[in-house]
Amino acid sequence: MDTESAKPATTIDPDEESPIEEVRLTVSTTDDPSLPVWTFRMWFLGILSCVILSFLNTFFSYRTEPLIISMISVQVATLPIGRFMAAVLPAKKFRLLGFEFTLNPGPFNMKEHVLISIFANAGSAFGSGSAYAVSIVDIIRAFYHRKISFVASWILVITTQVLGYGWAGVLRKYVVDPAQMWWPSSLVQVSLFRALHETDTSSRMSRAKFFVIALVCSFTWYIIPGYLFPTLSNLSILCLVFSKSVTAQQIGSGMKGLGILSFTVDWSVIASFMGSPLVTPFFAIVNVYIGFVMVMYVLIPIAYWGFDMYGAKTFPIFSSHLFDHRGQTYNVSAIVNDDFEIDMKQYEKQGRIHMSTFFALTYGIGFAAVISTITHVVLFNGREIVNQFRASTKGKIDIHTKLMRKYEDIPNWWFYLLVGSSVILSLVLCLFMKDQIQMPWWGLLLACLLASSFTLPISVITATTNQTPGLNIITEYLMGVIYPGRPIANVTFKTYGYISMAQAVSFLNDFKLGHYMKIPPRSMFLVQFIGTIIAGTINISVAWWLLTTVENICQDQLLPPDSPWTCPGDRVFYDASVIWGLVGPKRIFGSLGAYSALNWFFMVGFLGPLVVYMFHKAFPNQKWIQLINLPVILGSCAMMPPATTLNFNSWVFVGTIFNFFVLKYRKRWWQKYNYVLSAALDAGLAFMGILLYFSLTMSGIGISWWGTDGEHCPLATCPTAKGVIADGCPVN
């Protein structure tokens, strides 16, 4: 039994209790400062977890169904390993360079476990999979077919990942130490740590044994959809029944259509893009599905078949590609000159860029989601945020902050040094390697100013409401207006402006987890920083290897039908670089573009929460009204594209089974095994995926039959407008 679990609860001063009920119910009010954290086990398992997760997440990010292996998998998997190491490693003390240490300081404790998980979180880029800046390298090499050096790529990845840590560290006293800044998402991790470390007295199968069995099953099963029978990953009944009907395949395709009567038995399809449905609360699943249904099964059919909005029938019903006015794939390479800027003569010759109506509407919904998040938070949480922030500045501390005062704090000069060195290294990139990333020095400084200015208010919003408004649309829109015609400059500015802020918020979120778990601050910072450097280096190294060795990677039109290397996320990132950077928002969403009406979605995002709020005030007894969360509903399709309808439907289906039915009718099973099952499914799939690649795919060993020919919905991408010609499609 762990020391932490064994310590009896102590009576605390009521004035020191957390003002947040959820924190009082979840977080322990005791601490044992004598527990070792800088242990061999922590370093070994932490670095190993970071390396494995950063490798696997980068590797899988290029696949049609990208898998993100999260921190939770490591939380579950490393507990039995840590306890095994505590049981078998020698306790003998060694001396090295004047320092005394031991491989086994005693029982594996919760603080070690937390730091290992923080290492792992860095390896999964705080749940994003791999470093965001890797996509810049991907589109330069795989889509634009231009060159960027490995050194420039490494600097780009590392600086964008750690830059925000500097100013975030200075802000800890405002958004980590105060009890009112409670960071709801961190309580999930606290609950899981405490559940895993509780003494198991039941007669049921242990979590460790269940994990191994589930992992073996997942590992063994994935050889079927992953190699022998890939069609099981996305099987459409309508496509099989109506093999010559364009409309039926548009409705039935789960990858390129509405996904009616399509299904999968592949965990990588279920868990890709949105993560494991087993760890998503049911209320969140419901909110997401409401938004998804409204968009995909109401808005899109009306826009496509009802109004032929934006010439919808000229293009595929579901596509993230760019087209010309004839419905042909837009030749982006032709409008890029030798200086990697827009060639206006060629652009005028080819004409405007067009999108599928689905893709266009997702941009509009994205506009609304960004603004609605701000409006919703101000209306429904504004007073609470202001009151909590005011209370946090009055100097009153709760029991958790009091306990953390026992540990040596981090001097601010550490963070100033980190900011300074990151900015200097970034300026080196902008000044001496500008030909590779296009962004001028003033763009970097503007991005840093934006990111640092927004970090505090967005951190306060996240810490109190668990909603994090993003700056991605704001940054790409801004740079597209002031510095158009340069695609890489736009995405680089977006990455420095948006990801630096997002990394800062994630850094603070992890720090709050460490605060609740009573981890020494210096240990937290060093693990986060070292883990990020390791992960970023592996991210770009794996990306470089795949971009060099996989023929036609990311070129879905040149790859075989069953090839997994389609890079759906990078495709959307590339399209964004064309829309916002190369062509510019003025020629897409402005007066010179075809989609200027989509700007009205900004107004929808502003007014929508206001309408809900007015109804809430008019009918205060109707409690269901305040449960209408427009940012969640509008943001539900933020992952589409690259996520598909099959991803959403299967994710919702599995999530509903486990987080509603199993939780309701088999609660004890759910409490003990749900997270363990999620981790085992991820791990088994990942290990088999890697094994298949190195043992068969790299050697060119494959099989070919009906079950390896993909979804069997070849007509789902066909246009239905009269006279439009597309390869393999009937002409109307």
Automatic annotation (TrEMBL):
GO MF entry, a single one: oligopeptide transmembrane transporter activity
TM segment ranges: 40-60, 67-89, 114-136, 148-168, 208-224, 258-276, 282-307, 358-380, 413-432, 444-463, 525-547, 592-612, 648-663, 675-696
Name by which UniProt lists this protein: Oligopeptide transporter 4
Family per similarity comment: Belongs to the oligopeptide OPT transporter (TC 2.A.67.1) family.
Signal peptide positions (record): none
GO biological process: protein transport
InterPro entries the UniProt entry points to: Oligpept_transpt (IPR004648), OPT (IPR004813)
Record's keyword terms, sorted: Membrane, Peptide transport, Protein transport, Transmembrane, Transmembrane helix, Transport
Cellular component terms (Gene Ontology): membrane
Domain of life: Eukaryota
Pfam families found in the cross-reference section: OPT
Places the protein is found: Membrane
Annotated source species: Deinandra increscens subsp. villosa
Membrane topology field: Multi-pass membrane protein
